[in-house]
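Please fill in the sequence for the structure shown.

STRUCTURE ENCODING:
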């Protein structure tokens, strides 16, 4: 990796510098658009006491669920935790801190962090356990709670295509949290299915400009389906 060229040749290089105790922001929704190989590298390194911001925590044995097996996650801020039995077990036994966060609030935490905004007011969660202990303001007769934004030590992201300058395009619903996560990391690492030369991606189709991206790696992906429902004819 040199100058504007953000490419790295190995997942070990892609996650260089990650340490125990860090905060990691992960793109993806369910198993759609998750940075599965970057997660696998975190698993391989064995770093512990991680704080994760992600919509969910994968499933048993795949995605972020891999990091639960060796208790690498100490705290997770997530919107949905219903597809992972090991996650449920660790939560009920008090082995992991779970901060349930409304989906829109989680998205805005990432977006605001990437924009340099330290906090924002939202009506979502007021009058519920989510709002307990948080500052409350009234605007135009409606109550709002103060939510802090987030910037991760690392942001791990899955894209479809990128050029070597780090400009990224996401495909269909795999866009989900990925563009938001990409802006909110001190070090942002993106794995993609294809790396092309600068100029091959139409400028008006780029979702994440390369200015946000520190490292790009091309990988291959399982793209597992979270739930398959088959109709019996």
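FILLED IN BY: designer on duty
SEQUENCE:
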């Amino acid at each position: 990796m040199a100058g504007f060229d953000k490419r790295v040749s190995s997942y070990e290089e892609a996650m260089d510098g990650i340490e125990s105790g860090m905060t990691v922001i992960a793109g993806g929704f369910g198993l759609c658009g998750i940075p599965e190989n970057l997660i696998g590298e975190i698993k391989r390194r064995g770093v512990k006491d991680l704080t994760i911001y992600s919509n969910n925590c994968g499933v048993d044995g795949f995605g972020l669920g891999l990091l639960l097996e060796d208790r690498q996650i100490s705290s997770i801020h997530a919107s949905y935790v219903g597809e992972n039995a090991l996650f449920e077990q660790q939560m009920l036994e008090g082995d992991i801190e779970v901060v349930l966060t409304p989906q829109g609030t989680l998205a805005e935490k990432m977006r605001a962090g990437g924009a340099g905004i330290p906090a924002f007011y939202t009506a979502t969660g007021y009058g519920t356990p989510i709002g307990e202990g948080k500052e409350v303001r009234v605007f135009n007769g409606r109550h709002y709670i103060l939510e802090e934004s987030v910037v991760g030590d690392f942001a791990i992201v899955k894209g479809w295509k990128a050029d070597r300058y780090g400009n990224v395009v996401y495909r269909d619903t795999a866009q989900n949290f990925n563009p938001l996560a990409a802006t909110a990391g001190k070090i942002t690492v993106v794995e993609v299915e294809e790396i092309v030369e600068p100029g091959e991606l139409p400028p008006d189709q780029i979702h994440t400009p390369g200015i946000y991206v520190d490292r790009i790696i091309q990988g291959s992906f399982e793209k597992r389906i979270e739930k398959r429902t088959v109709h019996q004819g």
